[in-house]
Design brief:
The complex is a heterodimer. By secondary structure, chain A is mainly alpha-helical. Helices cover 50% and strands 7% of the residues of chain A. Chain A has a single domain (2-100), classed as DsrC protein, C-terminal domain (Arc Repressor Mutant, subunit A, Orthogonal Bundle), CATH 1.10.10.370. Chain A is built from five helices and two strands, in the order ββααααα. The model of chain A has no long low-confidence stretch (mean pLDDT 94). In chain B, helix 2 (52-66) crosses helix 3, helix 14 packs across helix 15 (313-327) and helix 16 crosses helix 18 (388-400). Classes of the chains: A mainly alpha, B mainly alpha.
């Protein structure tokens, strides 16, 4: 599979995750969201940016609890929970948001 | 990708129902094939080999020689039909190849053709068939529509175990270059990094520190979640989903509170930061052994005297049945305790001795029912007496919660239904199968909700928990209606003076 972004064709795997993490630019998230008919708000971007920062440091997506805590600190306690994250990303914050952020898909019993 | 709505969840019938047969209903269900790099990391060819036919038959011969039971299962079936309506994937899809006998026959026909006299000379008379490309595709599709839960074997008068057949089928497939991506990528991560997620040590340490802060914030008590702590009495080996996902993480917090309150010195390990052993799912003894040996190494490195397993179904199946065979002798462990031991056994023992102060009213908002995980129910035991794997978790649950109700006995105990996501099928490319396969469990759950206003399913398996979070919404429930047993334990424990 492939994704067209800024006139370039980027490789993705069967499930639409970027094959090369280095290919990511913000327009990647936008293009994926467009395909899902999902409108990216500032709050969506807070999640994407946090995922990318965390990945840069730890080479893995953050645990759900780590993510909800970080988002709670940034956007307010009422938003620091999975219920809110699932409102933003109905296919699951760990999977849909990771894909938009250019991270590999979390694997395992999750 | 937003392809998940391309199918409808079946309606929940008012009572368990045998569906009408729909030939080929799930013939489109086919998980992603492993990438060459995932295959090679496990010692398998990268892609389908040119001489796949001969190598598949050769591998089948090897397995028939190595596993006596496999040959008996292929020989013994008398087509009595007792298994036909027992598989949750059949009940949810109506596809006759999801009848256990239909699934077994995919392999049995080829076995007869090549390994029995009658099949070699009179194939049509004895239902023997060649391993054609079409048959190979059916193997790939339908051996990945079995969660190896063994429910059918409970009803088979000969005890034929379809799990063994589907494991053999998958092993043959992997050995000719047709492994499954989900399982094989994960096993590679366990070999390389130590857990299914690929969670490296710094991320694990950071996650655990965060949980310690959360517990302290909530309870005012400093409960530790130690990592790689030498000279601990107990090495806890738990699924990495317990670090990562919900509701799993609340179970992990529960284990920590139990150890804390009992004054036990315990640790997690980076090297063995995963209880799961997907080597079982793909039928690979070599990979299963390699994964199991990490646990032995970790226990020796850390000087642990006990190995305790967290809430993971198939991990306990492998540990209970095979840990000593795969990674023994375990003679360096304290002989006063079972080796290995299940966290439910630890908690049960502490509760029986009055070593934990519990306030079950902390769970008064919850009305719960216990989901027996297939691997624990039908492939292992807990405690000293037969049926302990059913009694112990329920004893623990009743000690920490005042409102516990039982689902239909045809859907619990040794007759329990798989959650629909076990055996290496917990992957997004099989969502339709997972949703449909959970129908019998959802039916039993809906009934207990109706009769007793039950609010939650309680589980002791990481796969069950993730699977239910995913499928509950397809049936009109919410994803947070599944809980870890040790979440309820953790919420009921009164921390403080011992």
């Amino acid at each position: 599979m492939a994704l067209e972004v800024n006139g370039k064709t980027l490789d993705t795997d069967e499930e639409g995750y970027l094959s090369n993490l280095g290919d990511w630019v913000p327009e990647v998230a936008q293009a994926m969201a467009d395909a899902d008919e999902c409108e990216l708000t500032d709050n969506h971007w807070e999640v994407i940016n946090f995922l990318r920062e965390y990945y840069e440091e730890y080479q893995i997506a953050p645990a759900v609890r780590v993510l909800t805590k970080a988002i709670g600190k940034k956007l307010g306690q009422d938003k620091g929970n999975s219920r809110y994250l699932y409102q933003l990303y109905p296919y699951g914050p760990a999977k849909q948001a990771c894909r938009y952020a250019g991270l590999p898909k979390p694997t395992g019993c999750v | 990708m937003s392809k998940e709505k391309a199918f409808e969840a079946p309606p929940i019938p008012p009572a368990p129902q045998i569906p009408a047969l729909v030939e080929g209903a799930m013939s489109h269900s086919r998980p992603f094939v492993a990438e060459p790099e995932h295959q090679r990391a496990l010692g398998f060819p990268g892609e389908l080999v040119d001489d796949w036919h001969d190598r598949a038959i050769e591998k089948m011969g090897d397995l028939l020689h190595r596993y006596r039971g496999f040959r008996v299962f292929l020989d013994a079936c008398v087509k009595c039909g007792a298994c036909t309506d027992k598989c949750h994937y059949f009940l949810g899809t109506g596809d006759p190849k999801n009848m256990p006998v239909g699934r077994q026959d995919l392999l049995r026909k080829v076995y007869r053709r090549h390994f029995t006299l009658a099949g070699k000379f009179f194939p049509k008379l004895v239902g023997a068939a060649d391993l054609s490309e079409e048959m190979l595709d059916d193997w790939y599709r339908y051996f990945h529509q079995c969660s190896q839960c063994r429910r059918c074997s409970v009803f088979c008068p000969y005890g034929i175990d379809t799990a063994e057949v589907s494991m053999a089928g998958r092993e043959i497939l992997a050995s000719i270059g047709m492994g499954q991506k989900y399982s094989n990528e994960i096993i590679g991560k366990v070999h390389r990094i130590g857990n299914n997620l690929g969670l490296p040590q710094p991320a694990l340490a950071h996650t655990l520190e965060g949980l310690e802060e959360d517990i302290e914030e909530e309870t005012g008590v400093r409960v530790r979640l130690p990592l790689d702590q030498a000279d601990s009495d107990i090495l806890l080996v738990t699924p990495s989903a317990d670090f990562f996902a919900e509701p799993h993480v609340d179970g992990l917090i529960g284990y920590a509170k139990v150890f804390h309150q009992a004054g036990l010195r315990w640790t997690l390990s980076t090297k063995a930061s995963e209880a799961a052993n997907f080597g079982l799912f793909i039928g690979s003894y070599e990979n299963m052994r390699k994964v199991a040996l990490r646990i032995r190494d970790a226990a020796l490195d850390l000087g642990a005297r006990r190995i305790v397993f967290g809430e993971c179904g198939h991990a306990w199946r492998v540990a209970y049945n095979f840990l000593d065979t795969l990674a023994g002798p375990l003679d360096f462990l304290d002989p006063k305790y079972p080796a290995p031991q299940h966290i439910v056994e630890v908690t049960h023992d502490l509760i029986s001795r009055g070593a934990l102060r519990l306030d079950p009213s902390a769970n008064d908002e919850r009305r719960v029912t216990f989901h027996d995980s297939c691997n624990i129910a039908r492939a292992s035991r807990m405690g000293e007496v037969a049926g302990g794997q059913f009694a112990l978790p329920r004893d623990v649950l009743r000690s920490v919660c005042n409102h516990v109700f039982e689902m239909d006995p045809d859907a619990t105990g040794e007759r329990t239904f798989c959650c629909g996501g076990g055996g290496g099928l917990l992957t997004d490319d099989l969502v339709e199968l997972r949703v449909k396969g959970s129908l019998p469990r959802m039916q039993a759950f809906k009934e207990i909700v109706r009769r007793h206003r039950v609010s939650h399913l309680v589980a002791i398996c990481a796969i069950c928990k993730s699977q239910f979070s995913k499928v509950l919404p397809f049936y009109g429930f919410t994803m947070d209606q599944v809980l870890s047993l040790h979440q309820l334990v953790g919420d009921a424990i009164v921390l403080g003076e011992r």
